[in-house]
Specification:
- By secondary structure, this protein is an alpha/beta fold.
- It folds into three domains: 242 residues, Glutamine Phosphoribosylpyrophosphate, subunit 1, domain 1; 187 residues, Rossmann fold, CATH 3.40.50.10490; 155 residues, Rossmann fold (3-Layer(aba) Sandwich), CATH 3.40.50.10490.
- The protein is built from 20 helices and 27 strands.
- Strands 3-2-4-1-10-9-11-15 form an eight-stranded antiparallel sheet, covered by helices on one side.
- Bound molecules: 5-amino-5-deoxy-1-O-phosphono-D-mannitol.
- 5-amino-5-deoxy-1-O-phosphono-D-mannitol (M6R) binds next to helix 10.
């Protein structure tokens, strides 16, 4: 995926674009570019690397002035990250300049046609094909830019959000969307375009999210002209006021967003529970569950679909829903689910989980489930995202903007929602006793405080990180509800420190991974008191017998594991169902500290993007 930005108004465009691109770097950061227009044409700069590299290049070049501009930060799909494949892309006549987020699936066949018509290509990108297709259609039929864009987009298979400017008409930008997000900020006499509204909230809070199949023609000092790509029908724009708190998207005292987001978890969990858990009345109230009570009450089975960290939360959801609500649950990778013929019948429940709400595989899985007649329920963080808009009902996690590429607070928020859901359905179906329900509700209310105490183990983890940051491999073990936490701990370490790590159910170790264990192999083991504690002690002994190093996550007051382990990280006591909300915290901090010692860019790990809006 990529980030796109644009400005049309009366201010100098360059600072708005460059600062906006920095805020969009979570979407991709392998190359970037900017084009700024005035009445004499445009200046275009692009370069491999982060936006800071682009900034350096522009400072050493001439200053760009102009009140219309577009910019792009890239996460490569077609073609390696380099200066040539970076956006904006320019048509053969140099008249049209385009930025694009998404994938044009039929770009190859279009390229063959354009080559036959004499077009040439410098880059390996699908975007350069699109800009030339628009030019070809415009010239051949003598069309306005907007009409050429519209007709071209009707020839496209794939996903896009685009912004395009014509050199001879810098007073106009045409934008369009299908599948990839596009927000438009609107002020008196100015328009702001961005993949999400964060780059422009300093300037305006009035925004409109383009819907799939919509395009807009933005003209200086003119009203917004919103249309349907299919048939050019005019649409009345619905402009809403954004409710984003600027503090949430600043690093504050933290060096990295990831560290800030780890430390925010007491608050974010509280925000997830707010208005939904009324402990004093033993009440869980969630509108979207209440209004679909019958569906949940009669559920014969639930399928949960997600990717990455959200998939790990789904595995925890499986445990919770089966344990508390006694509903059979299947958890699927969205990327697998979408390409097989899953057995989903009319009215079956499919839950999709996604932080961003824009993950391409999860969106495709959602669409497949809907096509099969399922009731699709979403658990999403980003308000107004594609998934949030397309599900039948759902719950927002309310974790606030998550900027670090490695998910942290969104994971604990997802688990919190899944606990609420499982308790609520369990109550409907009378699969949970009143006393257990009340106990868990009360304990859930105390989780933010317990996460707060867990965060205090920072120093212990710093010491452990100093010892092990140089190793090549880590093993993470957990059992039951904490097995997905082991998977999540391993994913966090891989993502940001590039150390190979694997998560395993502790008892599976003897079926293979035990072969890896020697004196240089650290094994992180979740050994909290519940969940087969005695068996876990056995697993630890197996590791120690092979000289492996054990880093154990234990409960306060633990004695047995603490005697055996090389390093002990103590967390507060809590019921097993809620334990992932605490056990994951040390694993997040461990990954962060190791990556930090290694000097890696924690928020922008190589090869990754915050939300994967392409296949
Ligand atoms: O936005 P989503 O929750 O749908 O994203 C799914 C994964 O791409 C995401 O969790 C990814 O694995 C993160 N980088 C994990 O830290």
């Amino acid at each position: 995926m990529c980030g796109i930005i644009g400005y049309l108004g009366y201010k100098d465009a360059y600072p708005i674009l460059i600062n906006g691109l920095k805020k969009l770097e979570y979407r991709g950061y392998d190359s970037s570019g900017i084009a700024v227009f005035d009445n004499n044409g445009y200046k275009l700069y692009k370069t491999k690397g982060k936006v800071s590299e682009l900034e350096k290049k522009i400072i050493s070049g001439s200053i760009i002035q102009g009140t219309t501009g577009i910019g792009h930060t890239r996460w490569a799909t077609h073609g390696i990250p380099d200066d040539i494949n970076a956006h904006p892309h320019v048509s053969n006549s140099k008249e049209l300049v385009l930025i694009h987020n998404g994938i044009i699936e039929n770009y190859h066949s279009l390229k063959v046609i354009l080559l036959k018509h004499g077009f040439t290509f410098k880059s390996q990108t699908d975007t350069e094909v699109l800009v030339n297709l628009i030019e070809y259609i415009q010239k051949k039929n003598k069309l306005s830019l907007e009409e050429a864009v519209r007709i071209s987009l009707n020839e496209i298979i794939g996903a896009y959000s685009i912004a395009i400017v014509e050199r001879s008409h810098p007073e106009r930008i045409v934008i369009a969307k299908l599948g990839s997000p596009l927000a438009l900020g609107i002020n008196d006499r100015e328009f702001f375009i961005a993949s999400d509204p964060i780059p422009f909230i300093d300037y305006t809070k009035n925004a409109l999210y383009l819907k799939d199949g919509e395009m807009a023609i933005l003209r200086k000092n003119k009203e917004l002209d919103l249309r349907k790509i299919l048939n050019n029908h005019k649409i009345s724009p619905i402009i809403k006021e954004l409710k984003i708190n600027i503090k949430e998207i600043e690093k504050g005292k933290y060096k990295y967003f990831m560290l800030k987001e780890i430390n925010e978890q007491p608050k974010t969990i509280l925000d997830t529970l707010r208005g939904r858990l009324l402990i004093t009345d033993g009440l869980i109230y969630i509108d979207s569950i209440e209004s679909n009570k019958d569906i949940f009450l009669k559920a014969k089975g639930i399928t949960i679909v997600a990717c990455g960290t959200s998939w790990h939360a789904s595995l925890i959801g499986e445990y919770l829903l089966e344990e508390l609500a006694r509903v059979p649950v299947e958890v699927e990778y969205a990327s697998e689910f979408r390409y097989r013929n899953p057995i989903i019948k009319k009215k079956d429940i499919v839950i999709v989980i996604s932080q961003s709400g824009e993950t391409a595989d999860t969106i495709a899985a959602l669409e497949l489930a809907k096509k099969k007649g399922a009731f699709v329920f979403g658990i999403c963080n980003v308000v107004g995202s594609s998934i949030a808009r397309n599900v039948d009902a759902g719950i927002y996690t309310h974790a606030g903007p998550e900027i670090g590429v490695a998910s942290t607070k969104s994971f604990t928020a997802q688990i919190t929602v899944l606990v609420l859901l499982a308790l609520k359905i369990g109550k409907y179906r009378s699969t949970i006793t009143d006393s257990r329900y009340n106990y868990l509700c009360k304990e859930l209310g105390s989780i933010p405080d317990k996460v707060n105490s867990t965060l205090k183990i920072d120093d212990t983890i710093k010491r452990i990180s100093k010892i092990y940051h140089g190793v090549n491999n880590f093993l993470y073990l957990g059992r039951g509800i904490n097995f997905p936490v082991a998977l999540e701990g391993a994913l966090k370490l891989k993502e940001i420190s590039y150390i190979h790590a694997e998560g395993y159910p502790a008892a599976e170790m003897k079926h293979g991974p035990i072969a890896l264990i020697d004196e240089s192999m650290p094994v992180v083991i979740i050994a909290t008191k519940k969940g087969c504690y005695e068996k876990i002690i056995g697993n630890i002994q197996e590791i120690k017998a092979r000289k492996g190093k054990v880093i154990a996550i234990v409960n306060e007051g633990d004695f047995q594991v603490s005697m055996l382990a090389d390093h002990v990280i103590k967390i507060p006591n809590v019921s097993e169902e809620l334990s992932p909300l605490l056990t994951v915290i040390p694993l997040q901090i461990l990954a962060y500290q190791i990556a930090f010692i290694l000097g890696e860019n924690v928020d922008q790990p190589r090869n990754l993007a915050k939300s994967v809006t392409v296949e």
